[in-house]
Amino acid sequence: MSLGSGASNLRKVLEDPNGFVCAPGVYDGLSARMALGAGFDALYMTGAGTAASVHGQADLGICTLNDMRANAEMIANLSPSTPLIADADTGYGGPIMVARTTEQYARAGVAGFHIEDQVQTKRCGHLGGKQLVDLATYTTRIRAAVQARQRIGSEIVVIARTDALQSLGYDESLARLRAARDAGADMGFLEGVSSREMAAQVVQDLAPWPLLLNMVEHGSTPSLTAQEAKDLGFKMIIFPFATIGPALTAMREGLEKLKRLGLPGLDPELTPQMLFRVCGLDESVKLDAEAGGAAFAGGVDLQK
């Protein structure tokens, strides 16, 4: 990516006929650092991961705008030119709150965000029993976001998500996405795509409007690789559990070992210095030295 803003870089990719965004889900600073270190050109801040990491709660509408904006701002500013796509749930209220969400996300450095058509007491898109607002309320949310973006002169990408597939079916979902497109949304997002055939169909039905595929493994959507999604015509794929899933497994195994053996038994390479280097230690030491500081003149590695 160039050194432009995350939003402008995201728009360049979406406007490129061959452009494609593959964004792993991150939920905190360490997971974002790991994804950046792995070479990803975009990140996705998962709402489920934020609820789990910030509150230790399930994705049931627990997070507020302030929770989500604060987490997104921290992640986005680790690498401001790298696009961060963020969950914005329902927009956190009526048109005034949706506009406020848009403005706060834009000023926080978020490159794009999605707003959905669930009621305020929402739940993860891959849980059953979702309740929806009516079409007029949904399009009002999208219109409020688009107008707020225009009012502040931001390039932030507005992504319209619908959760209507589970209860109202494909045709109503398509109608809602078309209405969101007509209201000015930059991109569409059909949550809970249930087959490869449906994935191909929605791209065809809404072409050339760019679409996002949400790849939650072991959820409602069959497993598709990033390349498969691109070949089907999607412009973006997100993997919300890409970091929190492995982290959960590793933490559970490590804690079970500690409980059983009295010692975590970490790999020898997992030193404090290694962790801090992942989080920018060397860059911080260099910054201090270049400014004339001497706080780290003796180095940071332990002497043995």
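That was protein one. Protein two is written in the same sequence-then-structure order:
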Amino acid sequence: MKWILFDKDGTLIEFDKSWEKIGLRLVDSFLDEFPIENKEEAHRQLGVVDNAILPESVMGSGSLDQIVDAFNNIADQDVSTWTRNTSQQLVDTRVPENNWIDGVYDMIKSLKNEGYNIGIVTSDSKKGVLQFLEATHSKDAFDLVISTEAHAAEKPNPAVLKPLFDSYDVKDEDVVIVGDTNNDMKTKVNAKLGLAIGVLSGIAKKEELIDADVIIETAVSVPEVLKTHFENK
């Protein structure tokens, strides 16, 4: 393996509660903007219960494409442009929380010392990632950052990894992806990567990471997984 790509929220840092606030605001804006007759049913379909978002729901762990599809179905019309633009506006004004999961930063530095290239592939915007890197003084820890803007490819679409394969001479089987949702794991499947490592430090439960090759508590154990993987090859 040459490259290890980490999801950000819930994998490198503690899951940021500001994302839930954005999700709730997006749903509220959607229901205000469009004539949805049964708003209670819309909340149920989107996974909003008692002003909280269910982790396994489309709003909790779905990609923006999946949220767009859900909004289109509920509104019974194409609201794609509105949804993407409104989501981007909310993301751009987000005040993020950036708290490393214990031991993960030291683990990243250890992997770099061993010669691995380290990247981030996240559903956060470029602005959000830059805020994270500046707040944690960790810009030098990462060789590549792939963020997701309103109209860009996103996980689990394999096209999300185009910046990696366009800029570096690396084979898909030499790439590992580490994340806390099954969309991260599906990215491995769709892009034919070498290994998918699921972590339980974010929003997904163990049984939801169905496409993971290995599941660990936190990303701190990634070096042990890599060692075992190489020994078994």
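The longest helix spans residues 18-33. Keep this in mind for the problem set.
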